[in-house]
Amino acid sequence: MKYLYVAATQEVEREALAAVTARVAAEFGGPVRGMELGSVDFAFDAERRQYGSIPVLDMLLRRCPQDATKLLAVTERDLFIPVLTFVFGQAQLGGRVGVVSFARLRQEFYGLAANREIFLERAYKEALHETGHLFGLVHCAEPKCAMSLATTVRQIDLKDDAFCAACGTRLRRKPEGTQV
Ligand SMILES: [Zn+2]
Ligand SMILES: [Zn+2]
Description:
Blueprint: E1 3-9, H1 14-28, E2 32-38, E3 44-45, E4 50-52, H2 53-63, E5 68-75, E6 79-80, E7 89-91, E8 97-101, H3 116-134, H4 153-158, H5 165-173
The structure holds zinc ion (2 copies).
């Protein structure tokens, strides 16, 4: 039996993690397993005061269980890649591991009043987006599709927490475990 793993670093809010796990399970079909990752302090960049998503993906590849089809990690840490100010997440296209950061999904990050519903919707959309990449989906030109590229929370908010018809069809056509 193969599982889709949804893994969490230690600081992740458990209730949000459970909600995201349930949403991913509903979209991609079970069985889904949880996994604890501990800290990602090793990926901390003291100059940027952020965490490198590339070293995080390397760690995930090393720790990816034998029975994992895919491993999506969730962290509260703010992630970056060298050429960008930040990333909401990163995943290997058609690969095994990806990561989503909750750090910039909360209204509080932007100095606004907390809003649980908005935060969870953003978390669902970004989890679907990165998992979609793992299953071979590329960025979609339809702004409402979960696979459209979002570089601001405003763009995330314009998306539906679902794939468009074309991406949904592509997803169902992909053979399980396609690797690149
Ligand atoms: Zn993307
Ligand atoms: Zn689409």
